[in-house]
Design a protein that fits this description.
The chain contains 11 helices and 10 strands. The chain is α/β, with parallel strands linked by helices and 284 residues long. The chain folds into 2 domains: 219 residues, 2-enoyl-CoA Hydratase, Chain A, domain 1; 48 residues, Orthogonal Bundle (Lyase 2-enoyl-coa Hydratase, Chain  A, domain 2), CATH 1.10.12.10. A 6-stranded mixed beta sheet has the order 1-2-3-5-7-10, sandwiched between helices. A 4-stranded mixed beta sheet has the order 4-6-8-9.
Length: 284
């Protein structure tokens, strides 16, 4: 039986449900605007993922978007311009205006990075239009699945800026092909699901959105059935090792497991293997 997520019903721009035990499903819910984001949405998204990170009733998260046309068309430029944050008003000098903008960008980055910092594995499901912020957010996820109709673009150069919410830092480490990354980032050209799969940006392509959601739910359910100590530790060490040397990663793993090997999960997992039974693990 799936745990109750009643405490997540108060969010305005996202739907949160539980399709399986210990699995949460977060859906961006602005399909009439192609799920384009404005400030209140990314602040709410950060709040949701920080809450999920510490929720003992959640062990894996699916992130997708409502509607059939788009995962997200990126930033709602019109709504952002109306906010006035990026428009100098002439009352402050350049340095003070730049400081204000820098803080604004950091706030935006922190909200999106909450997906990556979430202690629980996050599986993102993309479909249709998936441009700009779609790449930033999906790069923060642990696993990326898309439907074959997905159209991707690192769109920022087409609106006169360098992508600043994470794509340029994370995408090269995901695909390991700097030439291809520069190809798509410098040109803002569209690429399809097959190309995304070929370079390793996504790990699976399905026939349609429903199939992608189903695949993500099955995978999230499988992950959620494992020891939360082991799963969360694995995510933590993989992310740490991505950004550090092998020697640093080995040292961090030793320190991490010197504490985490004391859990009862190891004995439970080994005993269930011997008895050919399904193990049950305490909440973390």
């Amino acid at each position: 039986m799936a745990p109750s997520l009643d405490e997540y019903t108060g969010f305005k721009h996202f739907l949160i449900s539980s399709p399986a035990e210990y699995v949460a499903h977060v859906e961006t819910n602005r399909p009439e605007k192609l799920n384009a984001f404005f400030e209140a949405m990314w602040l709410e998204l950060g709040e949701i993922f920080r809450k999920l990170s510490h929720d003992p009733n959640v062990r894996a998260v699916i992130f997708s978007a409502a509607g059939e046309r788009a995962f997200t068309a990126g930033l709602d430029v019109q709504a952002t311009n109306q906010g006035g944050m990026l428009s100098p008003d002439g009352t402050i000098d350049g340095s003070r205006f730049a400081t204000r903008v820098r803080r604004y960008i950091h706030e935006f980055q922190d909200s999106i990075s909450a997906i990556e910092k979430c202690e629980k594995p996050v599986i993102v499901v993309m479909h249709g239009i998936s441009i700009g912020l779609a790449i930033d957010m999906s790069c923060c996820a642990d696993i990326r699945i898309c439907s074959k109709d997905t159209k991707f673009s690192v769109k920022e150069v087409d609106i006169g800026l360098a992508a600043d919410i994470g794509t340029l830092s994370r995408l090269p480490k995901i695909v390991g092909n700097h030439g291809w990354v520069k190809d798509v980032c410098l040109s803002a050209r569209f690429f399809d699901a097959n190309e995304a799969l070929a370079v390793g940006y996504v790990s699976r392509v399905t026939e349609d959105k429903a199939g992608a959601i189903d695949a993500a739910t099955k995978l999230a359910t499988l992950i959620a059935s494992k020891s939360p100590v082991a799963v969360q530790g694995t995510k933590e060490i993989l992310n740490y090792s991505r950004d550090h040397s092998v020697a640093d990663g080995l040292h961090y793993t030793a320190v991490w497991n010197s504490a985490m090997l004391h859990s009862t999960d190891v004995a439970s997992a080994m005993l269930s293997g011997i008895k050919k039974t399904k193990p049950r693990f305490e909440k973390l």
